[in-house]
Amino acid sequence: MEPRTHLGISLRLVGQPVEISPGVARVRLETLAEMSADDRGLVHGGFTFGLADYAAMLAVNDPNVVLGAAQTRFLAPVVCGEVLEATARVVEEKGKKRQVECVVMTSKVVFEGVFTCYVLDGHVLDAQG
Q1: Averaged pLDDT of the chain
Q2: Taking the model in full, what pTM does it have?
Q3: For the chain, which domains are there?
Q4: Smallest Cα–Cα separation from 110: which of 19, 48, 53, 40?
Q5: DSSP structural state of residue 13
Q6: In whole angstroms, what is the distance from residue 11 CA to residue 13 CA?
Q7: Which of these, 10, 36, 61, 64, has the minimum number of CB atoms within 10 Å of its CB?
Q8: Buried b (16+ CB within 10 A) or exposed e, 25-36
Q9: In which element (H, E) is residue 115 found?
Q10: Where is pLDDT greater, at 111 or 129?
Q11: Residue 90: in which H helix or E strand, if any?
Q12: SS3 per-residue string spanning 17-82
């Protein structure tokens, strides 16, 4: 299945889709030196979150999906050069609302979260006044 959402995003920064099937997505991200928050190579958590968010969007895979909320936990640090893999699954669907669980791993679990996504009738910016 091909991506139907976030088509303009930088795959270098949020990861490369490995699998997209109905309600499920897996995305891999090779962490880069420019993602480092310090001189020891600690990857800024925003990149881990961005990977997980992108995987959640692909699990829904609708052109008009947006993130409404996230409950997340960072469980272990990530060092530049590590490869992250996010697996996201839609676990609940109610009208426009989708609950997506996501786990990000290296050789261990480093992040987990539940993303509340919404499938809108049109592009989110079209609703702006």
Answers
A1: 96
A2: 0.96
A3: 11-122 (3.10.129.10)
A4: 48
A5: H
A6: 5
A7: 10
A8: bbbbbebeeebb
A9: strand 109-119
A10: 111
A11: strand 83-94
A12: EEEEECCEEEEEEECCHHHECCCCCEECHHHHHHHHHHHHHHHHCCCCEEEEEEEEEECCCCECCC
